Structure formats: C-alpha cells, structure tokens
C-alpha cells in the first residue's frame, strides 16, 4: 500500500536521509527503529506528506502523493492517514471527546456515528471516564490516548505513529499495542510505528532500522 523510494532529506549541511527505500503491505505493522537523530521522525513526516523530501517519491495506493495539489493532499491526508505524534496538539478549549470527533466531522461523517465511535475508542483505551475533561485536566498519558483516538476516528487506511507508547506505563502500553493488532485484524489497517519500545518492535510483523541515512 505504501512505497517510498530514493528518499533524501537534508537540513542545511546535515544529510539525514540518503536514499531511503521502504515498501509496506496493506495490513502490515512495521516498526521503525534507530538511534536518536537517525531520521525516524523526519521519515515519518515525509511518509505522512507533512513534509516533502528533497528527492525521491512516496506512493500510497499507487498514487504519487506529492504530485497532488496542496488542497488535494490535505483532503487525502485527512481521509487516509492517521497521525499519532509525540506532540499531541489537542485543542485546549475542547473536551477529550470533542477533540476526537473533530477530524470525523471535517471528513463529513454523521455526527451521531462519530460521537459513538469516539466514545468506543476512548473506552477501549481506558479513558472513557475522562471523556468530558479538557486537556488541562488530563495527564500526559491520557493526552496520548485522546490523540490516538483522534488518529483512529476516521478509520484511516494508514496509521503513522511516533513513539505512541512513549508516555504510557507498561500496562497501558500493552493495551495500546493490543489495540493496534485488534484494529489491524478488524479493519486491515496498516501501521508504521517509530518506537524505542522493544516489546512493540518484537510484536511487529517487521522491524526496520534507519542507520547512516539508509534503511537496513
Ligand atoms: N526542522 C529541522 N531543522 C534542522 N534540523 C532538523 C530538523 N528536524 C530534524 N532535524 C535534525 O535531523 C536529525 C534527524 O532528526 P529526527 O527527529 O528525524 O530523528 P529521530 O531519529 O526521530 O530522533 P529521536 O529518536 O531522538 O526522536 C537530527 O539531527 C535533528 O536534529
């Protein structure tokens, strides 16, 4: 479902990605590992079309994603890709459940169905009782789980996650990892996950490493 080829990216003199190749099948769970500063987040941003490479191409469902106009790209991203990043960017004036439903409403889904799915996701992630709280009233781990629910609300084909269990204790991390596998089973979603968590990278179908700007 995804193919990245010849991806290069530099920041000034710093060559971070030097021709990365990656192919991911639909329904696959791939863990990306590598040392701090290896370029994992940089690659994830490019795969998610949030940043463009200096050279190279990304195909999602055989579509050359960067050949689209910025408007097409934004619509494609909202519908097809769910992001779980380290900085959650929850909207402070909205409650947990409201934060989760926003991408669903933007995507044109029916409000009642979106609300019900949001409540289910929050419940599955163990924060059903916190759904009417605002971000300032939630812990770091609770924020994380709201952001994960928000990423999943549109049932995107592709989920890109950067250290998704980074803020969670081992029990909640395991629940989250199990949720990913459950979603893959139910919806055949594809996951590309940057992680330092050995349990998660061991559970993944495949573990790839970025080293010296290349994918090993
Ligand atoms: N916007 C930017 N401007 C300049 N340098 C950047 C920028 N973003 C990232 N870098 C640099 O590029 C390199 C790769 O960063 P990146 O965040 O992709 O690494 P990472 O493998 O995800 O690291 P970590 O595991 O520590 O999160 C780092 O040296 C970082 O300092």
From TrEMBL:
It comes from Chryseosolibacter indicus. Belongs to the ABC transporter superfamily. GO terms for molecular function: ATP binding. It holds the Pfam family ABC_tran. Keywords: ATP-binding, Nucleotide-binding, Translocase, Transport. InterPro entries: AAA+_ATPase, ABC_transporter-like_ATP-bd, MacB-like_ATP-bd, P-loop_NTPase. Residues 2-216 form the ABC transporter domain. Signal peptide: none annotated. This is ABC transporter ATP-binding protein.
């Amino acid at each position: 479902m995804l193919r990245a080829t010849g991806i290069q990216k530099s920041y000034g003199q710093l060559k971070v990605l030097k021709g990365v190749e990656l192919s991911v099948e639909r329904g696959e769970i791939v863990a990306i590992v590598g040392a701090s500063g290896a370029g994992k987040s940089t690659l994830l941003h490019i795969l998610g079309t949030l940043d463009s490479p200096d050279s190279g191409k990304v195909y999602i469902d055989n579509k050359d994603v960067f050949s689209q106009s910025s408007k097409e790209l934004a619509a494609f991203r909202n519908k097809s890709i769910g992001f779980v990043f380290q900085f959650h960017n929850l909207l402070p004036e909205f409650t947990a459940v409201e934060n989760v439903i926003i991408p669903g409403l933007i995507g044109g889904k029916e409000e009642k169905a979106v609300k019900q799915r949001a409540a289910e996701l929050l419940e599955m992630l163990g924060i059903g009782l916190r759904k009417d709280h605002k971000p300032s009233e939630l812990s770091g781990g609770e924020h994380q789980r709201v952001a994960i629910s928000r990423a999943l609300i549109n049932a995107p084909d592709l989920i890109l996650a950067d250290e998704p269990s980074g803020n969670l204790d081992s029990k909640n991390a395991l629940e989250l990892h199990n949720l990913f596998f459950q979603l893959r089973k139910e919806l055949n979603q594809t996951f590309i996950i940057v992680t330092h968590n050995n349990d998660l990278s061991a559970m993944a179908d495949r573990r790839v490493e970025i080293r010296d700007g290349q994918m090993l």
